[in-house]
Design goal:
The complex is a heterodimer of chains A (402) and B (155). By secondary structure, chain A is α/β, with parallel strands linked by helices. Chain A has helices at residues 9-20, 26-30, 152-163, 171-181, 206-220, 239-248, 263-269, 271-276, 279-293, 317-332, 359-375, 392-397, and strands at residues 22-24, 58-61, 66-68, 79-84, 87-92, 95-102, 123-126, 129-135, 190-195, 230-233, 253-255, 298-304, 336-342. Chain A folds into two domains: 2-102, no CATH class; 107-397, Aldolase class I (TIM Barrel, Alpha-Beta Barrel), CATH 3.20.20.70. In chain A, a hairpin with a 2-residue loop joins strand 7 and strand 8 (129-135). The model of chain A has no long low-confidence stretch (mean pLDDT 94). By secondary structure, chain B is of the alpha+beta class. Chain B has a seven-stranded antiparallel sheet with strand order 2-1-5-6-7-4-3. The chains are: A alpha/beta (402), B alpha+beta (155). The complex binds iron/sulfur cluster.
Amino acid sequence: MDKYNDVSPFVIIKSDVTRRSFIYTDRALGALDKSKHQYQQRVLIGSNRDKNAAVPVSLLLRDGTSIIGMPSKTAKNPYVVDQIDGKLVLTDQGEIVEEVHYWYKPDYYDKFTSSGTPMWQVASSRPQRLDIDPNSHCHFWNKGNGCKFCNINANSTQSEKECNMSKQLTAQDVYETVKEALKQPGAFTNLKMSSGSILSGAEIFDDEVDMYIEMLQAAGDNFKDKKFPSTIVASAFSEKQLAKLYENTGLMTYTSDIEIPNEALFAWICKGKHEEVGYAEWKRRIIRAVDIFGAGNVSSGIVGGCEMAQPHGFTNEDDALKAVLEEAEDFASQGVSVVHCVWVPMHGSAFHNQQNPSLEYYVRLAKGLSDLRKKYLLNVDMDNYRKCGNHPDTDLDRGNLD
Amino acid sequence: MKLMSILNERIQTLLQDSVAAKVLATADKQGIPHIVSDPTITVNDEGQIIYLELIETSRSNVNLVNSIWFKRKVAIHLSKGEESYQIKGYPAYSVICGPVFEHYYKLSLERNPEFDLSTVWIIEPDEIMDDTYAARKNKERDVHPLITHLDRLAK
Ligand code: SF4
């Protein structure tokens, strides 16, 4: 990676650890303190916890960069988290790569709402973001057309069975949990909500919009001002739906994921989204959201590397990167930040047997997306390193001054 | 009790002295320097320097980010009365969450309710220079005895 000596080495490590995955030694797991660290959390995609052991939910590097992920027992060439000389470290082939820390547990985590719901099942905590996912079921899977990289319904069904975690939250639980979370000074800088797509309603997604309004209002009742730093990662809503959301809630920013920034691959990988809305319309709606939220306050996530899934994806990394960055530039030139996560062919997803691209691909992708924001003067405060922490490209933005 | 650090007892005491002058110097990617004066710069129990950044998007913070990423040194000037020191070191941790962050977040709030702490920077000291005129001049005289004005040597 010497030729990328202008890219943060922490971001390079993060990308590689995510793409190759990692495991823990028993020593490292022994360093987890259940009273201090997070070992279970409510997430939409991925895994909520390990049912056999207390395993840290994610990692933090020295510079504040997060590595989001659970260990993989089936990874072929994983990094190893170990404890050496009293410090937790990432190792690769026995060599120490970097120091790591486990994510701390916020004060509200072990408390219960008045209805008896554990608060950690209502809101999870990224380093500085309160994550509330009020609905962990995606309707696209009802017809078998969920996105091929996604395991949302498999994950939420398993969590419901194993620890009685409800797929849907109540507004009262959300209100009480946010109230409790805000008692901890300095713990959070943003509130994010996300949900599986809800297709029902007079117009497609009307019920999803109403669900967000109810939940955001419940959360918002805890703030002095109507608007507060907040985002949703949601379906692509119409202008009318977006206006209704904006006017009736404290929401300040909006994300809808285009996932695979290529129409033909979107139609294959995100079949449900393509059949119900279509790539062009999904994209148009995201861009129109800029009229309401403002340039830089709308982003769209892509599953970085998934454009190389086979048999229909790109077979050459240069071609794939060129196509992705060209489409991302079209978004950026219209005020939308494209942000990527590292595609992990996850257990429970249709793509679990696939292979993600090279580390170099991810370094170029992160740098390319970050450079686009520089070119189009978009800041990424809504989704920066300390809020979401799942995007190598937005981690890079903190090294630039506007 | 202080643990192993290259900072001696006197310098650590000065770093904890709120009346001492403390200045942090960083450089951007092009090497352009930037300084901030901040009397709250202090030292922790491990003998590491603590700098509390209140502005996430400040020039200092961005320079510190690049320093921790690319292993570039920063400098701290410390002085009180006749005493003056320059400490150079590497930003080792950018603490943005967790108990250490929250400790300093509350401390900042006590200092000023308007303060909204962004980052606790932990700087590992690597070199120390006595920065008084006498110390610097004596060192120069030792190494470069030819550098002086002759009138000073006249009978
Ligand atoms: S829209 Fe796709 S990525 Fe989002 S929850 Fe549904 S299946 Fe998963």
